[in-house]
Design a protein that fits this description.
7-stranded parallel sheet, Rossmann fold, globular, 2 domains, single chain, alpha/beta, binds uridine-5'-diphosphate, binds alpha-D-glucopyranose
Amino acid sequence: MNAFELPDHAASARAAAIAASDASPAETPSTPSVLFVDQSGQPGGAELCLLPLAARCVSHSEVLLLSDGPFRARLEALGVRVQVSSHARVVAIRRDNLRLGWLKAIPGIIGQIRVIAARARRFDVLFLNTQKALVLGALGKPLHRRPVVWHVHDVMTRDHFGPLQLQIVRWLARHAIDQFVANSSATANALIALTGLPADAVTVIHNGVDASAFTPVDTGDLRALRRRLGLPETAWLAGLFGRLAPWKGQHVAIAALPRLPHVHLVLVGAALFGEDAYAHALERQAEQLGVRERVHFAGLRDDIPAWMTAMNLILHTSTEPEPFGRVIIEGMAAARPVVAAAAGGMLEIVRHRQNGWLVQPGDADALVEAIETLRVMPELAQRLADQGCADVRADFSLERYLEQMTRVIHHAKRQD
Ligand code: UDP
Ligand code: GLC
């Protein structure tokens, strides 16, 4: 076993225990009604993870967004009922400015707590999908008295969060949450370390994808596809998908490019949460390194299966532990070889040189070696891609994810 092969079977065993604990929850009159709350109008990974669940619960649920944006239309297109309740001062509170600024937002915070509680009283279960949703929804528990599920999408450590925020989460976790679902064992372990919760209090449920939506095109169509997407038709393309943000490490991929003269880098995603300065810094970095013509900024896209299929390889370069990393299971579903940063949830998805390739986070030299190896050894790349595709269908299916999540919601209602 090499240093990257660190499977955590305990977590999957925990999730499996919940999965096996009772009969399959069919849609019956006793199906719990759910209010899902998410702070973002932008379609980030946590929101895209919620999307199919809200759609699955469409007849007896509603999504309350604390900020408007294109995510609303994505939900509504699937028939999901959506309410938006946004307060400018609360929207302005950010992880990185959580000092005294939030005091000005107190009236807004109280208002939002009341709005969520009033809405939650009409449902059996309150499902909180993001950090602000957690705080505002859980603090209102004395008002709504509904069982609260928190879907934890973040690794709750000092790498990402300030001490005050961690304190608040620690308190709420002990006093106001009935069910915890973590998107990976990495996320669960950080939460357990922070809160002192018993290990079996947190259910690990990995994200799932609909692999059939990622069916690869044949090579004949590949050039036409690239033409349609405005990509160079014959270049060797490495695709890096995700919002532009320093911890997502797009700069590491650009730093590797001068030593990869045959490779173009396609950055699919935008600065969703105000990281515009980083987006500009990436362009400057590419210019300074003389690789600007080989870096393609594609912006935010909806048709991810097509974009993934157009690539020769899918990269993941986060410099901090990735809580889960949907982009990598999507890349595998698209039958593309993947190279991922070996930390967090990636260690639960990628097995080095078996279904993908792991490199140390932030290590541009290792990235060069991985990409070049897979470029010059297409048989190896194909073998990893085939195994990755099979693994996603077996272990990260959308059906499995939805079944496990609906079980948690049923459990929460029964705890009431
Ligand atoms: N994504 C997208 N459009 C883009 C770039 C990314 O829809 O232009 C999607 C991507 O397919 C994935 C999600 O955004 O489903 C990112 O999720 P991930 O878990 O990888 O990272 P997060 O941004 O949530 O940290
Ligand atoms: C978060 C995490 C990401 C994860 C997604 C879905 O946005 O950053 O790693 O894949 O949630 O759970």
